[in-house]
Amino acid sequence: xxxAGILNYAPRVESTVDRGRxxxxxxxxxxxxxxxxxxxxxxxxxxxxxxxxxPAYVNPETGxxxxxxxxxxxxxxxxSCVQLGVPLRELSGxxxxxxxMDVSALLDRARDLAAKKLRETEAILMTLDEYREGSAAQxxxxxxxxxxxxxxxxxxxxxxxWSEDGFDARRYAKAATGLYVRAREVGLVPLFLQGMMWRADxxxxxRSWQVVLEARPLPGEASRVPLVELPDGRVYxxxxxxxxxxxxxxxxxxxxxxxxxxxxxxxAFEVWDAELRFGRTTLEVLRG
Length: 288
Description:
One of its GO terms (molecular function) is DNA binding. By secondary structure, this protein is of the alpha+beta class. The chain folds into two domains: about 5-100, Multidrug-efflux Transporter Regulator, Chain: A, Domain 2; about 120-285, Alpha-Beta Barrel (Multidrug-efflux Transporter 1 Regulator Bmrr, Chain A), CATH 3.20.80. The protein has helices at about 5-10, 15-25, 30-35, 40-50, 70-85, 90, 105-140, 170-185, 245-255; strands at about 30, 55-60, 65, 150, 155-160, 190-200, 205-215, 230, 235-245, 265-270, 280-285. Strands 4-9-11-10-6-7-5-8 form an eight-stranded antiparallel β-sheet.
């Protein structure tokens, strides 16, 4: 065989530049990835720096970064985790020394966090809806002559017994704060109504005051603790007590409880009203 024939069959030796050019045909530049996924080039460079998403190829001459299409799925997971609040330093723990991501474990982490965020968002929506409804009701009641008729839907309350004969603002604030803490500990959402309730004990029939906070579990969940329930559609006679201090208002409500009420419940709720002037406090008192 001639020398020319041997040369014709000799394998072609590719340069580093040739291999890089051929490789780049199957890769995406960092700018293309940024446009494709809506992630800034700066963020992609930061992901590389902390070891979360390393480029599949870096041109040794230009320093340009390139990524595989397979890495786009990993990038989606990373972006989702970042949006959920997972620190990037934590994400790097899911990447091996060889740059391989444990996608399955990271997906489990992201899903758990997304479920938690969803629950928190549902609680926020419940709170906002209740405040909107409560604020609208108070705006309407403010214009009504007393006593006015008020119909409450079904309500549930966390309660704390009140052992004092009279009202003390500091003790009340401490008890109310404890109810907020308790609500969150047992997975309940604190809502709009907060105040005190004069009612008969379901077992002894003895009447007493309780500090109450409206609270309920998220839809589909059950309360892990007993709640005081008010039935749906109950009609109450309502009026407002306005004074300079919370203590002044609640003492007036306590005086009302000394009047015969039969089987009625007396409710005294703090009014959250944008029309209230500074240095004035208002309670809504409902009897029914």
